[in-house]
Write a structure and sequence with these properties.
Blueprint lengths: L6 E6 L9 H10 L4 E8 L11 H20 L5 E4 L2 H12 L3 E5 L4 H17 L2 E5 L21 H10 L42 H13 L5 H4 L12 H5 L5 H12 L4 H15 L1
Helix pairs in contact: 6-9, 9-10
C-alpha cells in the first residue's frame, strides 16, 4: 500500500512499542517521507470494576503508555489519546484529519477479531483503506499446518513444524514520524480514570524496561529455566509475561535474543533455552 504524502492512522492495541512494530513500520512506509502518521490509543470507558482487570494491570498500562508517548515524541510523533468505543473513535479521527488509511496489528483473541470485523465494515463504508498486520505471533494459526494441510491437535508435532519454519528478524524502530499538529487528544490515562487506586508494587513499565528484563533473562536465568521455572523461591522465570501482553516486546525480539546466546551455552543450557522457546510457541 503506497500512500506517499498522505495521512494514515496507526492504532495501538497491544503493541506499546516503536521497535519491531509491524503495523507501525508499514504505516510509516506507506505514508512516505512527505506523509503524516497519526498514532492513537483508545482507552476503555469502563469504570470502577471489571471482570478481567484491576489496579495493577491498569497501572502498568498507564506507565507503558506514558513511555510510549515519550518514545513517539523522540522520533517526532505525538500519541493521540481518545476514550470510548474504538471503532467510533477511529472513524471520528479519520474524519477529523482526512486520514486515508488505518493500520493496526491483528489480535488473535476472539474479542479482538470481532472488533476487527466491525472496523473492516466501517472502513469500507467510509472509503478508508484498512491494513491489518501479523505482529502478536511469530506464526499465526493458519501458517502451521500438518502434511495433510490440516490444523494440529497435539502440541509436540505442532511445535516441531513451528520451529522448522523461517523466522522473521525484528524490525528497527522508525527513524522519524511526522504527526499533524492540532489534533484533539485527551491526557495520558491515569488510574483515577477507571476509579482505581494503586495497591501493589508492579514491574517497571515501558519498552526500555522490558528490553532490560529480556537482556537480564537471556544472560542468566534462561540457562537454568528448565529446572527452576516451577520453583517459586527461585528467580527462574523470565518475568516477561506483562511485556508480551502489552506488546512492550515482540515474540520475534524474544526469539532472536534467546537464539543469539543459545550456542554459547552448555548442553543443559541449550535444552533450557528450547524449553523456554516452547513456552513462547505455546
Amino acid at each position: 500500500m503506497n500512500m506517499n504524502g498522505k495521512k494514515v492512522i496507526h492504532w495501538f492495541r497491544r503493541d506499546f512499542r516503536i521497535t519491531d512494530n509491524t503495523a507501525l513500520t508499514a504505516a510509516v512506509a506507506a505514508a512516505g517521507p512527505d506523509g503524516k502518521v497519526i498514532p492513537i490509543y483508545v482507552a476503555s470507558e469502563w469504570n470502577g470494576s471489571h471482570q478481567w482487570t484491576g489496579p495493577a494491570r491498569q497501572e502498568f498500562l498507564c506507565g507503558s503508555l506514558a513511555s510510549l508517548a515519550k518514545n513517539m515524541e523522540a522520533i517526532g510523533g505525538h500519541l493521540i489519546i481518545r476514550r470510548g468505543d474504538a471503532i467510533t473513535e477511529l472513524e471520528k479521527l479519520a474524519a477529523e484529519t482526512g486520514a486515508e488509511a488505518i493500520f493496526a496489528n491483528r489480535d488473535p483473541d476472539p474479542f479482538g477479531r470481532a472488533v476487527e470485523a466491525r472496523l473492516k465494515k466501517t472502513a469500507a463504508a467510509k472509503g478508508i483503506a484498512l491494513s491489518l498486520h501479523k505482529d502478536v505471533c511469530i506464526h499465526e494459526r493458519d501458517e502451521v499446518r500438518t502434511g495433510q494441510d490440516t490444523v494440529f491437535r497435539v502440541f509436540t508435532p505442532y511445535s516441531k513444524v513451528w520451529f522448522g519454519l523461517p523466522k522473521p528478524a525484528p524490525l528497527p524502530a522508525p527513524k522519524r514520524i511526522s504527526t499533524p499538529e492540532g489534533i484533539t487528544s485527551l491526557p495520558l490515562p491515569q488510574l483515577s480514570d477507571w476509579g482505581l487506586t494503586s495497591s501493589v508494587s508492579i514491574p517497571e513499565p515501558g519498552e526500555r524496561a522490558a528490553r532490560d528484563r529480556l537482556k537480564a533473562f537471556v544472560a542468566g536465568p534462561m540457562a537454568s529455566y528448565g529446572e527452576q521455572r516451577d520453583i517459586p523461591s527461585l528467580a527462574g522465570t523470565s518475568h516477561l509475561s506483562q511485556d508480551l501482553r502489552f506488546g512492550l516486546l515482540s515474540p520475534r525480539q524474544i526469539y532472536a535474543a534467546a537464539k543469539s546466546v543459545e550456542e554459547t551455552l552448555p548442553p543443559e543450557g541449550r535444552k533450557s533455552t528450547m524449553k523456554f522457546l516452547a513456552e513462547i510457541v505455546w
